[in-house]
Amino acid sequence: MNTQLNELKTLNKNTIIELVGNEPAKITKFHVEFLKQASVVLKGIVKSFNISDFKELKSQAHYLKTSARAVGAERCAYFLETIENYSLDQNKPAIKQVIIKLNGEFGEIKKELSHGK
Amino acid sequence: MDSNTPHIITDLNLHIRFVSQAATELLNKKKLTGLDLKEIFEIETVTDDLSIGSYQSHRIILNRYNCQDGYCFLLQEQKNNTEHLGFLVDAISSSNIGVWHYNIETKTIYLSDISKRILGISPNIKLTWRKLLSLVHCDDRALFPLFFENHVQFGVPLQFEFRLKLSGQQFWFGLKGSCIHKSNGQWINGTLQDCTVEKTTVIALNDADESKQLAIEAGKIGTWRATKSGHQWLWKWDMLANTIFKLSPEDIGDLNKWVELLHPEDKPRVQAALEDSLRTGVEFKQHYRSILKSGEVIYVFAQGRVGKNYKGEYCRIDGVCVDQTEIHTTQLALKKLNSELETRVNDRTAELHNTLQKAEQANRIKSEFLSMISHELRTPLNGIIGALDLLSHCPLSSEPKDLVETASTSANHLITILNDLLDLNKIEAGKLELETVKFNLSSVISNLVNTFSATAKEKGIELSIFESPADSLILKGDESRFLQILLNILSNAVKFTHCDSVPIKKINVETHINKLNIYQSEISVSVSDTGVGMSSDTIQKLFTPFTQAEKSTTRKFGGTGLGLSICGKLIDLMGGKICVESKLGVGSKFTVTAPFWLELTENNIEDKSPLNCYIIGKLSDKNQHILTLLQSAFHTNIINLENNHMSSADVSHNVVLTNDLDMFLEHIETLCAINKVIVYSDSSLVELIALSAPFLAVFANQPITLRLLEKQINAQQQDQLLIEDFSLDFDTDDSIEASIIEEDNPSAAEYDIHDILLVEDNPFNQKLIKSQLAKLGLSCDVANNGAEGFNFWHSGTYRLILTDCHMPKVDGYEMTKQIRTEEAKTDQPPVPIIAVTGAVMQGERDLCTSIGMNDFLCKPIRLNDIKSIMERWYEHST
User: Fold this and answer.
1) Between A39 and which of B299, B303, B728, B756 could a Cys-Cys bridge form, CB atoms 3.0 to 4.6 Å apart?
2) Is B251 within 8 Å of B232 (Cβ atoms)?
3) Do B863 and A79 count as a contact with CB atoms less than 8 A apart?
4) How far is Cα A25 from Cα A38, in angstroms, rounded to an integer?
5) Could you read off the pLDDT of B553-565 as tens digits, one per residue?
6) Residue A38: closest C-alpha in chain B
7) pLDDT at site B112
8) Residues of A in contact with B735 (CB under 8 A)
9) Is the CB of residue B100 less than 8 Å from the CB of residue B189?
10) Cα B96 from Cα B119, distance rounded (Å)
11) Which residues pair with B635 in a beta bridge?
């Protein structure tokens, strides 16, 4: 088992604290900002997937990946990077499964934030 | 007496004094006077006046008469002696009469052949008196000496009957005899006859008579009779009949005495009936009353039959009479009691009817009131719920948001209660009608599970579904009410399993289809949980409306206690049942069973699609269940990857069943080569497998239904994704956003002139870096791409530029090149340009340096890193 993968967190809160300091209000603001951005970008990713625009797909994944890393959405970042990689290979079936998982992961983040508010 | 009559005259001592001429001629002897008569004739006395004697081989009969100083004997020769004897022997023989004689002195006995035969004694046997007595029945032996001695001594007639056992059978014999005096002693001669038939008949008759008499006496039945003599009827009745009418013994036979006692109201009828019977022979049968001399009234039943004589005339009547006063009195008492009881029952029935009517009316009023009030409440409640829903979508801060949520939950709960009340009222009023629609069990179970799977997961309850393999039965019945029952039961299971006191939280749903015949199937769905369980007392009152397990249940778990009551009534309407098994602290099992009609139209049997099922490691129970479901829906080819048995057939449906992560990872390369694989595993491994092989569809093997399984497998075949499945719904979900303390309002600093330029296309990163700079007391201008960045630089004066490398239109590298070129042309000092990139490779850093970037920040930028960069490049720049 890849232990690094095992250790990936849905939302590592220490990451954002390291970036902006331990300011809950500000952190929450960035979390919300991230989800708003994710909501838009995910639809773009799906559109690009459906028309098999792998370049755009990779670009969008990369775009969202930096935001994901910033808020500590480690699993999201992992899936986005995987999309980037499969986009290079144009492996559409694999990308489909990763997008589905990415979508699930956003749901988990949302749930975590709702419970942790 | 003349001389022609042969006679002899003797003295009192029987010495002959005179012999008549005729006698002399008969005897052929002249000189007989002076001789002893007894010696001459060897007389055998038969009776005192008749003797039989013999003289010179002639048999002489002597009849004695008294005369002066002596006797006169008339002599008569017994002629044709042999002829007489033969006649006698024949008569005795044909009558089967045995003869015997017994010598009293010597006690010797002679038995004729017939006597021996009827006694069962061989003719050759010489019998003694003692031997004979030994053969006689022991109870009768004493009769012999008794009768013999009495006869000899007192002249008592010798005549009695005795029993003797022959060949195991008892026979009766009649013995008669009389004593005679002979010269050789005293003898008793007699006869012996078999009288078994006569004796048995007499005994039986006596027995029957005695039995009849006893019965009549026991039944207090009087008998009466009348016989016709000339034109007169002579009446007689027994003492019992006399006792019934309390008549005197001398009244017996006086019909008038009986007539006088007849009740005046009954007399004409009874007398007429009696006369009619005597005249026409018709049976007499009458119930009547008699007034006794004491004034007492008795009730009598009399019945009699008329008999005829040989001429066919009615000549006799025999009958019985029974005193039925006691029975009549009892019947009267019973009648009275019955009448009283009937009156009481009628009164009570009327009373109950009234009470029932009142109760029904009260219940109807209650139901109508509840129904009306429920309807009336629903209307404003719908308004409240709608308004709350709209309010919840408005931006609200956390506290009002919480209040709106609480109000909304409460209003929805109230609607549920009202719906339950309406249902209960409908059922109790008999107004609920069941629908009949076509459906199949899989869809019901799928709906059931979809409703609760998320809640169960959230509450840490392991929900498992075990459907019986579908046999494509289409059922007909009320699908929605059946689902309502199941939803209620599963809802309770979730409610009572989600409890701190329950360490292992599990709920299993199992289905079973039992085809009763071609028209009907019985469906069973059981829901078992590891929840708090119930005592047997609680189970008893489980289906009573407004009753919950314990008083504390409402407080602890909520609810009205209506749910199961409605379920119980609904399942009754469906003709099914709900069985409950439960143990306090262990869990409960509810089994819902109901019959449903089957759709008789022939189903189009679809060809099953082929499917390869790859098994990695040992099959768990849950994966075994998945395999069973797959086999029911697909033409399944099982491949065990452990044995490296790969399928030669390339099919579009491929499923992997595994519960062994290590073995799965060993075969991950193999799975990469298989088209559109879908993996099922225990939920604990799903996450790890999904992360390890993100390119594979991975699902938990429970909770799963056949519908869900088919949906997941079919979705795998889709090449496109539906955009609506990927809506995070965040634009409308303000629950998180609402809690943000707004600080986006542009401060005055925003409009100041800044000497730091941030070139970044990602607004999130823009905000983040701006926020980090603000933390350091700095602010910046923001350009969205390299082109904008160059323009900003060209028109302003910046001490530092932070730029992303990868951007649309003009990227960070190109912008840096343009700035450095322009600086060289205009001989400007180079502005520090810091690359901000997500790439962390050394090649990226070298590239940045080579095109004129001064330093490098790796995303995400930590506060300390940006602080160092600022210290190094911003604070020292002029």
Assistant:
1) B728
2) no
3) no
4) 20
5) 555 555 666 788 8
6) B728
7) 85
8) 114, 117
9) yes
10) 12
11) B610
Separate counts of helices (H) and strands (E) for chain B? 27, 33
- Of B683, B653, B662, B663, the residue nearest B616 (C-alpha): B663
Tell whether pTM > 0.90.
no
Q: What local confidence, expressed as pLDDT, does residue B558 receive?
A: 56
CA-nearest of B663, B648, B656, B662 to B678 is: B656
SS3 B226: strand
Structure tokens at B460: 């840490």
* Positive or negative torsion for Cα B752, B755, B760, B766: negative
Per the CB < 8 A criterion, the answer to whether B115 and B135 are in contact is no
A101 to B721: CB separation less than 8 angstroms, yes or no? no
Length of chain A equals 117
CA distance B568 to B489: 11
- Judge residue B192's burial from the number of C-beta atoms within 10 Å of its C-beta, 0-12 exposed, 13-18 middle, 19 or more buried: buried
Q: Is the separation of the CB atoms in B123 and B161 below 8 Å?
A: no
Q: Residue B314 to residues B87, B232, B277, B663: CA-CA distances in angstroms?
A: 47, 12, 9, 119
E-assigned strand segments in B566-634:
577-583, 587-598, 610-616
For residues B654 and B662, give the distance between their C-alpha atoms in angstroms, rounded to a whole number. 20
Q: Is B399 on the interface with A (CB under 8 A)?
A: no
Angle, CA of B258, B264 and B269, to the nearest 5°: 80
Can you read off the two tokens belonging to residue B476?
A: 């007909």
Interface list for B 658-697 with A (CB within 8 A): 661-662, 665, 675-676, 688, 690-692, 694-697
Q: Measured between alpha carbons, how far is B727 from A44 in angstroms, rounded to an integer? A: 11
Q: Other CB atoms closer than 10 Å to residue B321's CB: what's the count?
A: 24
Which chain B residue is nearest to residue A44, measuring alpha carbons?
A: B723
Residue B484's SS3 state is helix
Residues 22-81 of A with CB under 8 A from B: 25-26, 28-39, 42-43, 46-47, 49-50, 62-63, 65-67, 69-70, 75, 78-79
Distance CA B529, CA B581 (A): 11
For chain B, list residues with pLDDT below 50: 732-733, 738-746, 748
